[in-house]
Amino acid sequence: MNPTINLLKSHRSIRKFKDQQIPRQLLEALIQAGQSAATSNHVQAYSIIHVVNPANRQRIAELAGGQPYVANSSDFLVFCADMKRSTDAAERAGAEVVRGMTEQLLVASIDAALMAQNVLIAAESAGLGGCYIGGIRNNPQDVSDLLKLPDNVYPVFGLCLGYPDQNPEVKPRLPLAAILKQDYYDDAEDQALVARFDDTMARYYSQRTGSNKSTNWSEQLKPLFTSKLRPHMKAFLNKRGFGLK
């Protein structure tokens, strides 16, 4: 192990923050670290909205399902998949651009995710903590309107950042054998591995500081697959100019 690997393996979601502001110079350094992430064909198909206005942050907290840390973290960033800037640039260079390709949606979403993970890792290396907010996709049109996002740009997720005011345990991950497969996809052992992991997660949840509950990994998954999760996203993305072709 080395310090970088140890840092990556120690990740926790932080939802309670000290009343301490991240220095602007440090915040900008984190964003620059994010820009160094891999990006498909150097497109850099992302934009980040730094939401500073308290009323807007409170509104996003409500739109995201009532998540107060959106409003009370030091800084809140919305990572957007952005195909507008690059397609506009190609068009100005003389290309007859084709918009709305599904691959453009994938490229922009992946670029935004890779960039954000770099930002969070850099933040954790500086003693900060963070929490991703996928809940902004509960009401993506309202969030887009609030942030004045143009067509060919959509909000993928938010990220709360700040100085941690809690020290939660590291949440266990699936056994390596369940996700690392050699040469081809072989799930012969997956049922047994998942059963073992359910026992691990049941112990974790029963012993977790401050929020004990009786459940396991498989039980936690049930709501994700027994209802239509955010069924509005397809129409929303089509309206934004993504995933039409």
Automatic annotation (TrEMBL):
Keywords annotated in UniProt: Flavoprotein, FMN, NADP, Oxidoreductase
Domain Nitroreductase: 9-163
Gene3D superfamilies to which the protein is assigned, alphabetical: NADH Oxidase
Listed Pfam families: Nitroreductase
Single annotated GO MF: oxidoreductase activity
Keyword Nucleus on entry: no
InterPro entries with a match to the protein in the record: Flavin_OxRdtase_Frp, Nitroreductase, Nitroreductase-like
PANTHER family the UniProt entry points to: OXYGEN-INSENSITIVE NADPH NITROREDUCTASE
Family (UniProt): Belongs to the flavin oxidoreductase frp family.
NCBIfam families listed in its UniProt record: PRK10765.1
UniProt-recorded name of the protein: Oxygen-insensitive NADPH nitroreductase
Organism: Marinobacter halophilus
Taxonomic lineage of the native organism: Bacteria, Pseudomonadati, Pseudomonadota, Gammaproteobacteria, Pseudomonadales
